[in-house]
Amino acid sequence: MLIYDTRTLNHLAAALAPRIAEHLAARPRAGEGSPEDLLSEAASAAILGLMPATLGSWRARGHGPAYIRLGTKRRAPIRYKRGVILAYRDRGAVTPGGR
Fold first, then answer.
1. Does residue 76 form part of some domain?
2. Is residue 95 part of a domain?
């Protein structure tokens, strides 16, 4: 087990903070980008608050948001358009008192 003193930890934190901030700033957020951007299964699941396996299960059952298979093989990567994922997420929005 490694044990660091406070001075060493503060030095490490100061050195890593700018890199972490840069990394977080570069990450796409749910509402950013073009509706035509293609998202991975993991990114799409994160926006919907699901596990990626849930999207796979839904695809197998013919449910869930529309997707694109990048290739003809069964194991080809799956992508979702950002606009489709955001619309799918927002269709569950409820307006209190609305009908």
1. yes
2. no
